[in-house]
Write a structure and sequence with these properties.
The protein is built from four helices and 15 strands. It is α+β, with helices and mostly antiparallel strands.
Length: 266
């Protein structure tokens, strides 16, 4: 997030040095931040679904064709898996009570995207027509050193071989940068791969400004920069866009063709 602040500072300096663009920095910021928040949603989904999917379908006395899952057993498995899902070992505690898992983090890292996790998260699992569903919220949570409000719903789809997919509905965001965020999308991955693909559409606001972001084919793997995907942010001023290619920087293109460079925190 320090890199984010430096990127935003460079925008402000550019404006003060006579840059001809009259666009509000919020629009550029949203192209930069929205994929981060989408990756956070995906990383939570991966951490909660990937460790136990095979366990449910191959070890528990429950068959997918029975149209049921055992949320209590899945929650117990998540709690037991805490030192694998979040590192270093001992940075997090997880306690299962029925279908609910309460996490306490102290400077943890997840497999994908999430670093410097500190605070409390509660996730409650349920059966959604034979598939996993989860609802998560947070208390005093920070990610990468910034306050973060987690409000996330996850619905799993039937596994296709080693392919996993969840549908997400998220209102999660950092209040330092947005006033509201509402996103719907899908996260897909290969079991145990440490790589995710995100496709989503998001509405967000800051002050009197609003925008709609479309993330397509955003791909990210463990400890790597995003390797593919595009972001298109529609605003009252036109469309702002960027593309990911594995580089640690991205270029955000404004409706008038201006380009702004951002360093990625990856």
């Amino acid at each position: 997030m320090k890199r984010m602040r430096r990127a935003l500072l460079s925008l402000a300096l550019g404006a003060s040095l006579g840059c001809t663009s009259t666009y509000d920095p919020y629009y550029y910021d949203n192209v930069y931040y929205d994929p981060y928040y989408g990756a956070y949603d995906a990383a939570w989904s991966y951490a909660w679904v990937d460790p136990v999917y095979g366990y449910w379908y191959y070890s528990l006395p429950v068959l997918p064709q029975q149209n049921t899952v055992d949320p209590d057993a899945a929650a117990a498995q998540l709690a037991a898996n805490v030192d694998t899902a979040f590192t270093p070992a001992g940075c997090a505690t997880a306690t299962a009570s029925g279908a609910t898992v309460n996490y306490t983090f102290n400077d943890c890292t997840a497999v994908i995207s999430l670093t410097q996790l500190t605070g409390n998260v509660q996730v409650t699992l349920s059966n959604n027509q034979g598939q996993l569903a989860a609802t998560a919220s947070s208390n005093n949570l920070t990610i990468n050193g910034e306050p973060y409000t987690l409000s996330l719903q996850i619905s799993g789809a039937p596994p296709q071989g080693d392919q996993r997919q969840v549908t997400i509905v998220s209102k999660s965001f950092s209040p330092d940068h947005l006033d509201s965020r509402m996103t719907q999308g899908t996260v897909t991955w290969v079991e145990g791969s440490g790589c995710i693909t995100v496709d989503s559409q998001t509405q967000s606001t800051r002050g009197s400004l609003s925008s709609t972001s479309t993330v397509s084919g955003y791909q990210r793997c463990e400890h790597q920069c995003p390797s593919a995907g595009t972001v298109r942010v529609e605003t009252s001023e036109g469309a702002f866009t960027t593309t990911f290619n594995g580089s640690s920087t991205v270029q955000v293109t404004a409706p008038n063709g201006d380009n702004k460079s951002f360093n990625l925190d990856c």
